[in-house]
Amino acid sequence: MKAAVLEALEKLVVQEVPDPEMTDNSVLLRVGACAVCGSDIRMFRHGNSRLQPPAVMGHEAAGEVVKVGKNVRGFKVGDRVALGGDMPCGKCDELQCKTINNCPLNYAMGYQYPGSFAEYVIINELVWDGGPAVVVPPHVSFEEAALAEPLACCINAMELCRPEEGDTMVVVGAGPLGILLTELGKRMGVAKTIVVNRSRPRLEVAKQFGVDVTICSSEEDTVQRILDETGGKGADVILTACPSPEAQAQTIHYANNRARINFFGGLPKGQSIIPIDTNILHYKEIFLFGSHGADPKHLHRAVELIASGEIAIKKYISHTFPLDEAPQAFAAAEDKAGMRVVIKP
Predict the structure, then answer these.
(1) CB count, 10 Å around CB of 9?
(2) Whole-prediction pTM value?
(3) What is the CATH code for 2-146+312-344?
(4) Are 341 and 146 in contact (CB under 8 A)?
(5) Tell me: the pLDDT tens digits for 54-83?
(6) Domain boundaries, the chain
(7) Is the CB of residue 329 less than 8 Å from the CB of residue 36?
(8) Upper half-sphere CA count for residue 289 (Cβ side, 13 Å)
């Protein structure tokens, strides 16, 4: 089959690779679509301890079941499936690993296991039995179903943020997930959404998605503007949806008393130590935490929201590339000119 192989840092090559090997405990999925995540870009540029080149990345995926092992339960040939990225390890006890995305081994599709920037991908027993694979109805396209995984990550993040009716919410980073977080925030009762971004073009896109306030951090004093927008109190919910140490460090200055700050976007290796004024944290009783990935329950909820039309996920897709043009797809995603970039084998 054909796949986009990360041969080395910054070297992504589309080539023929051996077909995946089926077992009695696996499902073979013909990939219908796989979106390019920011973590894929980070691995392309900086690598990851969980991925050893040559390797196939890609975890925001959906496709059609074409073969089913005799021991598989719950899936049949012809099923259209959305995949989650995080998968159980099968080794943890319940107390050690209460949620899949917090598993100490942190297994994931497109990391330790081959991903979906390929024509076919194997769903092993850990995935189909562990929950991060959900059948989607026929009216949901593969491109839409592929975005169930990032939507699930956003649902997890917002559950941890516990927005309350009337809150003001700030998201730093105007990419597709940053804007998707604001949409979920509105659904959960947030009264005002503010998006901060260093460059203006994506802020113009954010306005089209109904964001209430946009702030270009390279052009104005972000802290003062947020205070102005909140009557001097600061924001109640703050998330960083960008790989910026500076953005994380500054969030504490945006915060109201008892604000919830979520470091949603990960940082590149070697850049994750940041200075924080802990006195502000102390005296304002601020809750500072992170969120990573999603649990199967979040993936199921994401598919429900997409299938019902409650989240019009298709509008978050700005570019589609064939598998042969995977390097160009990565370049488009890194350019940040649009929203989610999807690769279709």
Answers:
(1) 12
(2) 0.95
(3) 3.90.180.10
(4) no
(5) 999 999 999 999 999 999 999 999 999 999
(6) 2-146+312-344, 152-290
(7) yes
(8) 15
